[in-house]
Here is the input.
Amino acid sequence: MNPLGQLGIDPSQLHQQSGTTAGPLGMVVLLTLVTLLPAIVLSCTSFVRFVVVLGFVRTGLGTPSAPPNQVLVGLALFMTIFVSAPVAMEMYDKGGKQYFAGQLDERQALEAALPPLRKFLMAHTADTDLQLFLEVSKSARPATMEEIPMRALIPSFILSELRMAFKIGLTILLPFLVIDLVAATVLTSLGMVMVPPSVVALPAKLLVFVMIDGWHLVVESLLRGVRG
Here is the structure.
């Protein structure tokens, strides 16, 4: 006698339920990926470079609250959208369109959409950074660009973007540093040692920055540096 039958349980139902256990797990994985999607997207774009350089500009000006963080992040975000739009459209044409039409599954659509992104990342990644992650992961150096694993390419790209952002930031900070030194030297020579140099340097830096249209020059150099 089947003990499950005495309890009113059909054994076939157990097999059906066990086959559906992957559903909740798949939903958890999907929700996790959706949660991490903004970080993944921003890590594969020039957002890091933009927001770091804009932060250096604010630091050089000596105005910690102007512009506020929301303005800088918003400007960096829309600059990222402007720069990344052609790559995103190419990825959609090669993989997303066929996926939504039901012609490709998730894996096939991802493989078809990755080449434009891979090309963009490789164009802004230094060979030394990529070699670092390949050596640490003990992976052989790929013969072609398609063989480079994304787990090594994405962090290499972020590292290269951080290096470039700090190089640009240093170039921006040097003129502001000269103004600070000149203001401190003039005040010391006049015997006004009790007057903070920032009181004189801040208006001078703002005046120079406005006269040369500094925000326009910074944004233009960032956009041309990525699109060029």
In short: The chain has a mean pLDDT of 79. The CA atoms of residues 44 and 154 lie 6 Å apart. Residues 150-189 form the longest helix (40 residues). The chain is about 80% helix and 0% strand.
